[in-house]
Amino acid sequence: MEIAQLNSYMLGADVNFYLGNTLDPISTSIDILIANPPYISQDEWSVMDESVRRFEPKLALFAENDGLANYQKIAQQAQEKLSHHGKIFLEIGFNQGAAVEQIFQKEFPYRKIHRKKDLAGQERMVLVH
């Protein structure tokens, strides 16, 4: 978070940073939400790269409900906190696009939901606008 805040300052960007569990610390309306929540299922532990298993904190990687629990919570909370023209950008696991899209379509039926691919052609982002 410190590096992001420093970058924001150096660029003169008007950005508010919040540290907490999903959208819990946010009490105002937000225009843009960018999130990279933990999204890996516990079932994937055995197939993960050894360097990830040794050095990355599990709290930053794993989520309940097949890795979808944080998306479900964010979608529910964002209904109340996202401004009328607000946008959501979420990093997703390579095989979670359809499930995350469905979660947000349920909570935001009148918004457009798109899946975006990375340079390797894998779906790695969901955009809500």
UniProtKB/TrEMBL annotation:
Q: Which domain of life is it from?
A: Bacteria
User: What is the species of this protein?
Assistant: Tetragenococcus muriaticus 3MR10-3
Instruction: State one molecular function term (GO).
Output: nucleic acid binding
- State the UniProt keywords alphabetically: Methyltransferase, Transferase
Against SUPFAM superfamilies, the record matches this protein to: S-adenosyl-L-methionine-dependent methyltransferases
Mind telling me which PROSITE patterns this protein's record contains? N6_MTASE
Q: What Gene3D superfamilies does the record tag this protein with?
A: Vaccinia Virus protein VP39 (3.40.50.150)
Please give the name of this protein: HemK family modification methylase
Task: Give GO terms for biological process.
Answer: methylation
Q: Report the coiled-coil segments.
A: none
